Amino acid sequence: MDGIHQKSKPLLRFPSLETLKNQLVNQYDSSIRHQVFRIPYQAGNREEILHQIEEVILHVVKDTSLGTSPLLTYPCTSDWSDISFDCNSGLALRRNQRMTSVRFESLQSVKKFGLMLKVLSIMYRLVKTNHFCTKRDIYYQDPSLFGSQHMLDGIVDNISCMLEIPRWQLHVLATSKGCIAGDLMFQDVDNNFIDCSQTQMGIQVPNHVKGLHNIVTNASFILVVEKDATFQKLLQNKVCEKLNPCIIITGKGFPDMNTRMLLKILWDNFSIPILVLVDADPHGIEIMTVYKFGSKALSFESEHLAVPCIKWLGILPSDISRLGVPEKSLIALSKADKVKGEEILSRPYISQYPQWKTEIEQMLESGKKAEIQALDSISDNFLTDVYLPSKIRCSGWL
Q1: Is 140 labeled as catalytic in the residue annotation?
Q2: Is the distance from CB of 172 to CB of 229 less than 8 angstroms?
Q3: Global pTM?
Q4: Averaged confidence pLDDT in the chain
Q5: CA separation for the pair 263, 261 (Å, rounded)
Q6: Where do the domains of the chain lie, and which CATH numbers do they carry?
């Protein structure tokens, strides 16, 4: 990324189908035209990406012309047996993993086959014309065709996995929901200057994170917060002033891709320590693992999203008894919570983090969970005035 200022240390070619190519561009319909925006683009891989899409279409055309039923294949990411783990890079697809096939001849998958070709044509036009749009924009081209946003999202993921090309390089962006505040300044893709310290509610993470440039920060650490309510309370209590220069980020629950990507960019370019504050429950721990290791569904993009250096600041299950959090502020684990907790314990990375394993086992044994807000039962400002400062000062993270 050009123009990043560091605080201390450096941080398918087939002439016979030329007509098809032209049609893909010329059919660029007006419904998309009004929903995309031009951005500067480094030409590097555009021709290669176009070539890969063309190769897929070429195989479909050849199979059809030979009377063979065409199919599309991509790696399977539905089971942990298909995923490998490395402490330094997070989750990744295993070599020689199982493949999923979408067949034109199958009644169960013919619709998905058609939708994948439809979305491939949209991606081709976007890359060829150097435009970007969001997944939401694509869905609203033809909601009845796609059926649901969830269906389209899965199609986009499948294509990205099939081509082994990140979604933003296919010019399809996710819609951001995360917010950021604190000691961070940057220019967005439209060259608007953003100062994240000049806000009382946080700045929404931009949709095109890879377009950020001239990033400047003097933050001594980054605090990732699970919930927007906690994020807002920290801002109201001026935690960025109380805890030295810092950056606070929230994905407002399960993090979107752009929030995760921004966190990764900050780490790659500034090597700022990153701490995570989540509920002491299986759902909060799940969210933390997504930031740190990546997700199973998007394991093929972990190198752009996972930040393995992340530390678990709290709330730790052991903090509940250590701090004397009142019993009335605790919540009994549901059956789903217990199933999720046991499932997390079985994941490939847990064996590499014995302290995490101990904390999760302690939570399951107690049968209780605690939200971050449970600290308010000790005192209104206990989180910002006592818990966070003491934890950071004493390196009380895992």
Answers
A1: yes
A2: no
A3: 0.82
A4: 85
A5: 5
A6: 15-173 (1.10.10.10), 179-393 (3.40.1360.10)
